[in-house]
Amino acid sequence: MQQAFGMAVPETVAEMCRPATTAVLVYDAQVGILAHVRDRDRLVERISAVLRAARESGVPVLYVRHVSLPPTHMGVTALRTAMAWQRVGEAAAVTAAFPPDAPHTQVVDELAPADGEPVFDKLGMSALVGTPVEAVLRDRRVTTLVLVGAVLEIGIEPTARHAADLGLLPVVVEDACGVVDTAAAERSLASLDYSLLTYRCDSREVVDAFGATGLLSEAASL
Predict the structure, then answer these.
(1) Distance, CA of 171 to CA of 169 (rounded, Å)
(2) Worst-scoring range by mean pLDDT, 40-44, 112-116, 169-173, 217-221?
(3) What is the mean pLDDT of the chain?
(4) pTM higher than 0.85
(5) Which of 4, 123, 200, 208 could pair with 172 in a Cys bridge, judged by C-beta atoms 3.0 to 4.6 Å apart?
(6) Which letter, b or e, does each residue of 132-166 get, where b requires 16 or more Cβ atoms within 10 Å of its Cβ?
(7) What is the DSSP string of 120-173?
(8) Which domains are delineated in the chain?
(9) Are 177 and 150 in contact (CB under 8 A)?
(10) Cα–Cα distance between 12 and 171 in angstroms, integer?
(11) Could you give the dihedral angle defined by the CA atoms of residues 190, 194, 141 and 139, in that order, rounded to the nearest 10 degrees?
């Protein structure tokens, strides 16, 4: 760890992910989203390992989930986006893809929040727009945001970029981020790498950095 101007400046992901200054954000681990990612069960195992390590080490865990407004209350941008995603040519044909109470909108049982961990609803791609996530992180004096969930090439990439712009250290846990389109995910990672503002690692490195006793051997098998 470097020391400069009265601050500790981390050099490695392990140094960034100190439990006292880190939070884990579980992005859109929802029934209707994880159903479309590649190797869903393996992804859930890796996210679960990160969550167990975080909870054991006192690292705060926050969730976000994607929800939809009723079409009658969508604006122009929301309608245009819904038309594109739903492959319909008429705005009047748009439906609410993720109503808040729908079964497929809920977080999957295997990754359910524990001990009052908050779940914040969002309408857009960045988890930091229109949610209290930033306020919670600032209040906890968090400097590193560990990102897991789905989908890497759709919502995790813009969340990582936004976190960096807010002065956080975003760490994308590559093997704990679900992918739908492999080529698109590779482009997202390459773009994030090119910006030099986002860091990435695998789930074993995060578990090791959190120092969760009893989980290091488990991480070795991930």
Answers:
(1) 6
(2) 217-221
(3) 94
(4) yes
(5) 200
(6) ebbebbeeeebbbbbbbbbbbbbbbbbbbbbbbee
(7) EEESSS-TTSSSSHHHHHHHTT--EEEEEEE-IIIIIHHHHHHHHHTT-EEEEE
(8) 2-68+98-220 (3.40.50.850)
(9) yes
(10) 11
(11) -70
